[in-house]
Amino acid sequence: MSNFNFLQKEFPHIFKEAVSAEKHTFTEPRFSAILSRTALEKALHWLYENDVDLEFPYDTKLAALLHHQNFKDILKPSMFR
What is the dihedral of CA 14, 66, 3, 22, to 10 degrees? Predict the structure, then answer.
């Protein structure tokens, strides 16, 4: 049983990364961190591709996507922190 089963049907590519990260949390924590970052990047790319309020910034690195003003505008300030 995984905490990410809700992703399996609609987002299999994100689900695979998240479950793998979860599986390696205690045995290989650095590998788990890399997989977690990859899952986050895939989720953000999906958001930018599918939300009409978001446009990809020129720089598409993770930090640029997270800190882009359009992205910050659609979140509650408490969620961004």
Answer: 80
Q: Please report the pLDDT score of residue 1 as a whole number.
A: 84
Q: What would the mean pLDDT of 43-68 be, rounded to a whole number? A: 94
Name every residue whose Cβ is closer than 8 Å to that of residue 58 and which is 6 or more positions away in sequence. 64
Would you tell me the crossing angle of helices 29-50 and 12-23 to the nearest 10 degrees? 160
The Cα–Cα gap between 30 and 71 comes to 28
Residue 44 contacts residue 65 (beta carbons within 8 Å): yes
* Structural domain count, the chain: 1
Give the CA radius of gyration of the chain. 14
Structure tokens at 33: 């961190």
Q: For residues 25 and 32, is the Cβ–Cβ distance under 8 A?
A: yes
Residue with tokens 């999906």: 46
For 54, the domain range is 5-80
